[in-house]
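Shall we go through a protein fold together, starting from nothing but its sequence? Label the sequence line and the structure token line clearly, so we can match residues to local backbone shapes. Would you write everything just below, so we can both look at the same thing?
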Amino acid sequence: MTVPASLLPQDPHDDALVANVHPPDWSNPEPTGRYNLVVIGAGTAGLVCAAGAAGLGAKVALIERHLMGGDCLNVGCVPSKGVIRAARALHDVRSSGGFGVRGGETVAFDFPAAMERMRRLRAGISRHDSARRFHDELGVDVFLGQGRFVGPDCIEVDGKRLVFERAAICTGARAAAPPIPGLDEAGYLTNETVFTLTELPPRLAVIGGGPIGCELAQAFARFGSHVSLIEIAPQILGREDGDAAAILQAAFIREGIDLHLGVKIIAVETSGQEKILRLERNGSAIEVRADALLVGVGRAPNIEGIDLDKAGVAHDRTGVLVDDRLRTANPRIYAAGDICSPFKFTHTADAHARILLANALFAGRQKTSSLTIPWCTYTDPEIAHVGLYERDAKERGIPFTTLTVELASVDRAILDGETEGFARVHLRKGTDKILGATIVARHAGEMIGELSLAITARLGLSAIGRTIHPYPTQAEAIKKLADAYNRTRLTWVVKKVLAGWLQWRRR
């Protein structure tokens, strides 16, 4: 079995990772009879599909051409959050003077050690996604190699043919790069390669002000790189609430990140090892020089090499085309995760896989349109969102009321020294029905779940107001939103009636 391109740098941690997610000595099993489900792609969606189906008694085959665990484990959520945590620890020490901690600015930082920690933790987590666990413990036939359709009910891998009753395409997506003249020649990093670094780039230019670009720009700036963040739009995180993005922009500027917003990248040039970006804004030329480039501008679906046409599966540049129940043009074949979803999140892939299992194996009628999908950008502060934005409600003609609680009014945020941010909710006008919410806070991702639950369970904001929250916590900001809503119900008429009643009671 040929091992895919190695994860550089090779060290004992990467060796342990590969031994789990693409064992060099792996022998593919011999297929026997028809499978209830064949899954192509062992990222989050594929792993959940395979494990879930096998746990329900199905005969399952799982195919992976590269590394089990997919992007999330190997080059996405897991390594990025390990790196972000190291950057946050360093930032906290250096900015701890206000808490009475002295000498924080002179603290030493070891970039290779921080990256080694990330690789060690990633290798440990990889056991959950390992080929041997899925084969030995879960009873899944694991095939390592390129899978391709050879008919409407058959997939070939490593010269073996797997006949299926149902199939799941879970091949995910990969980092995309914009067509900038000179970019390929200059060379660049993406999320798929940046975590192989063992030396900190003195100057890093980040192309793209979306979640990936913002998270890594801040992390590397905190590590000590001089970071330039380049974005074609006039603000970073263009789809987020404008007030939320403004708070993060101010934090970036304060932390020394050079923001180049509303610019066009004309070309990338090289001078020795130096990379030179030629930008333009309103007719004015701008030059950015860097030692390394990081591109984070989007994702491209992994549809090459699997011969979708031979299976009658429709697809386009966005990926595999599915209906609301995740079924492709071939009724035997379904898809889940990044390969077919505009919401390219690990938790969405997990939710898709559960819908796929119900619909493909048990004639369920679950719909992706019924999902409530939150998301979070793991900067500092974090920005988390669920449901509709203000612009969405306006476009749909939904009358709404917006309530906002600033973290500066929340006791725990004040005590933590983390008052930058807010909790904001959009309600259907005249009701407590939650249309959408945004939280900007250091741990916004941990807080948004309460509002996501309320939307999913069709609970109004009043239900949160009746829920006792521990004091002091930053999540009290959400309860304060409910209190603010209740105050809107106390109109002058209601107040006058209540006052009259209480006056009568005093007689």
